[in-house]
Amino acid sequence: MSKRKPGFGKQLAELHRWNGWIVLILAITGLLLSWETVRGWLSGHFRNPVKQLHIILGILSGVLIFLYLPLMKRHLKQIRQRPKQKGNLSFVMVLLIGWLLSGIVLWQIRKFPPEWANGALIVHDLLTWAGVPYIIYHSVTRIKWMKKPERRAIKTTDAIDDPITQAPSVAAHTKVPYSEPTPWINRRQFLRWSLGAALTVAIAPSFFRWLTTATGGTISTAPGGMKDVSDAANGMLPNPTPLPDSVNVVGGGAKGYFRVYTVTPLPTFDSKTWSFTINGLVDKPATWNWEQFLALSRTVQVSDFHCVTGWSVYKNTWEGIPLSALLKQAGLKSNAKFVKFYSGDGVYTDTLTLEQANMDDVMVAVLHDGKPIHRDYGGPVRLIVPKMYAYKSVKWLDRIELIDKDHIGYWEERGYDTDAWVNT
């Protein structure tokens, strides 16, 4: 005997329930991945599993949309006289489909041009800013204790005998409904408005800050999104004297905004103690202090900067020392095969092959758009590898080592690809 197929109403209820749980966990995992306060906590081997869970749930959300489509026509017919429900359904479908499509682009980022990823990230963020508060509001205002009808007092007219016939009055047999005067706002409305106001106060400042810059990270309003570096904040004196092309900001300056992503405590630097070293399998190992490092010959280039999370900053004017020049000056031993980079935070490392390291645009940079690089963005010195995603461009660079075997970098240990080429 075959099982009876669930009814239309039960199917809708099941899809709604599963969608609710999936969206809830998507919101939590998305927050964990993007919230700077918890990025450090996830910096170990937890980050990649959380990311994979987020992707799997996004795919399952798409499956639920697919399962709902055959029911959609009947559902719309059922609620055709209910404009609020139709509006809610339309908004939720836009959210889910928008999240799904933009999420696919971000998930398969290497198969799309950077412009696509940049747009997808903005759409994904915008839908999150609009969708998560709405879903919280929608969910809380529909829990059982808010949906109970208002209690109304019932007053029964007292039985009074007719003074003439001594018979019970008709009023004695009639129950007249009685209620207190209706207030201008009931409990449910008050709670809904209060919740809406609380969400607005909590979220609006961050949302408008994001909207102003079309990004969701910690950024500044300076050109290119770089914070200005004052002598006090920099701690690295003297400031580099920029070359003429860097002063003129070739290309007109950076287009876009940097997001600040850090998974380790921001290191501090002082020119009195800072040093830069190149050693390992080289003929002439060397160490420079800050003033000696600034005396090295520098060049200027214009290149794009792409983050594997989806955002890009275009037409950056970088000034620094070509990595190939540093390697040539050091002299490489015959068994040197890879170039290992060390970050001043004492944690972050990565590698390039010799062929990659000798590309013309790979640079050890000290200036961005004619200004010192702020610590929040990897200064005072950082690696720039324009043709690869930015996790290869090691921040706070203070040491280069030539090695004979490949090294698994910080992000590669956590699931990122060693092959980090950008699809341009």
UniProtKB/TrEMBL annotation:
Membrane topology: Multi-pass membrane protein
Keywords carried by this UniProt record: Cell membrane, Membrane, Transmembrane, Transmembrane helix
Keyword Metal-binding attributed: no
Name of the molecule in the record: Molybdopterin-dependent oxidoreductase
Record domain Cytochrome b561 bacterial/Ni-hydrogenase: where: 15-138
Subcellular location: Cell membrane
InterPro entries, per database record: Cyt_b561_bac/Ni-Hgenase (IPR011577), Di-haem_cyt_TM (IPR016174), OxRdtase_Mopterin-bd_dom (IPR000572), OxRdtase_Mopterin-bd_sf (IPR036374)
Top-level taxonomic group: Bacteria
Organism name: Cohnella silvisoli
Oxidoreductase molybdopterin-binding domain ranges (all copies): 265-411
One Pfam short name: Oxidored_molyb
